[in-house]
Amino acid sequence: MGDNDEKTLDEKLILAEEKTQDTGEISIYSILEHEMTEIINMIVNNIEEEHNAKFKKGGRPPKLSLLEMVEAAFYYLAYSDYHDDISYNSIAEDYKIAKSNMYYSIKWVKNLLLEKQLMTIDLQYEDETPHIINLRKLIGEAEFERLIKKMEN
Question: What is the pTM of this model?
Fold first, then answer.
């Protein structure tokens, strides 16, 4: 990874988008471009209960970990509309699973994030991708305000 490994989440947010401070939102594209693994891990922790409930009944274990599912979904959502070579199939090949498994994994993550209102789709958004993570809701109002104060200093 790049220089972002040594930066804090606050510093990465400043580099990514100044408007995050006003809206509490950040594009999935920016999360990936600025290597904000902290946000991806927060999302994983937030949806872990639903993931565990989905596979509690038994059956085959999932082919991908929850982290891999979220990373694959973010990659697809951030880049597929703008790059012809990014598809369910190409991402499935990277993870060495069937295209159908990748399709259902990405669909499940996307639908769950929309249902929990952690993600919105804003077609008027100025960034390259309309998929927006509600950072304020994800980390909570108090933690978001702490982050903003730290970013302003």
Answer: 0.77
